[in-house]
Amino acid sequence: MKRIISGIFGALILIFSASLFSEVSVKIKDISSIDGLKENQIFGYGLVVGLQGTGDTGKSPLARSSLKNLLKNLGMEGEEIVSANTAAVLLTARLPVFVRVGDRIDVTVSSIGDAKSLEGGILVQSPLRGADNAIYAVAQGPLSVSRAAGNRRSVRTVAQISGGALVEREIGADIVTDNNIYIVLKEWDYSLANSIIKAVAGKYPDSKPEMTNAGKIQIHLPSNISLPEFVSSIENIEVTPAYKAKVVVNERDGTIVTGGEVKISEALVSREGLTVEIKGSAGKASASYVKDSATVKELVDSLNATGATTADIISILKALKASGALHAELIVR
Question: What pLDDT, on a 0 to 100 scale, did the predictor assign at position 110?
Fold first, then answer.
């Protein structure tokens, strides 16, 4: 019985062919960052109250001891309170670049006890610390638990507080060193670095861009332009990157994403058993011929014609990589 791929491009996504990648121009700010500008992670411990019997049980002593300490700080000492309406939680957040005292940031709240749900709870005021153990923000407020769409199972032990933390300490950002700024690529590539250096030098010859030993692009600040205007102008310069050839395969849902100039050497793909033979092997009947220097997209089109399933195509890509015919980095997840 003939096998037919039903909507193969619904389950199999091929994003951008190799010819398209070579023509796409992107802004420098989309593929790099200014050295010294970064987010900072902060975290803390807290207590959630107001739960409807879905909090930590007696098997988890963290919430019980935290509640006891909280009441003691309020001047209320007495017998130990046993309640399923509280939960011990871990708090995580990010401090944006150039954050100021008084700014509000979002907080993620995660149960660390045996609470069944954080829905309806309120976080009691809790400090958020950095890696240096200093307090940078204080979090408090009602929790919001996301609801899953469709048949997906929702996670009710993780919640968010939108704007729930108040920043108490600023973090400075020093981006200028010896009258130079430095550009750091998100993914290092010599061709891309060379393109950026040439583009910046073409617009600002006095900036004298060059690559340092640390893999950064050093750019000298001209004297006739302000720092904000210069950085903004550099970030908006467009370059044409040469992407590294990659094929990313997600075996769980059958998704395949290919990027860069992904080429395949001459190969013969047979429908019967869906075996793959590289250049030099004997031909077989009912086969789809893949010419030399073909792309992954052309390969998939050929396999589609033979009636291959998504699982078959993933297996063939692995075989091509193992044989050396697939000239790209194959990432299987």
Answer: 95
Higher pLDDT: 147 or 283? It is 147
Indicate whether 236 pLDDT > 80.
yes
Compute CA 330 distance to the chain's CA centroid, rounded to the nearest angstrom: 19
Contact 240, 24 (CB under 8 A): yes
Q: How much of the chain, in percent, has pLDDT values that exceed 70?
A: 79
**pTM over the 0.85 mark:** no
The 3-state secondary structure of the chain, one letter per residue: CCCCCCCHHHHCCCCCCHHHHCCCCEEHHHHEEECCCCCEEEEEEEEEECCCCCCCCCCCHHHHHHHHHHHHHCCCCCCCCCCCCCEEEEEEEEECCCCCCCCEEEEEEEECCCCCCCCCCEEEEEEEECCCCCEEEEEEEECECCCCCCCCCCCCCEEEEEEEEEECCCCCCCCCECCEEEEEECCCCHHHHHHHHHHHHHHCHHHCCEECCCCCEEEECCCCCCHHHHHHHHHCCEECCCCCCEEEEECCCCEEEEECCCEECCEEEECHHHCEEECCCCCCCCEEEECCCEEHHHHHHHHHHHCCCHHHHHHHHHHHHHHCCEECEEEEC
- Domains located in the chain, CATH noted: 8-22+243-332 (no CATH), 27-37+174-239 (3.30.1360), 40-167 (no CATH)
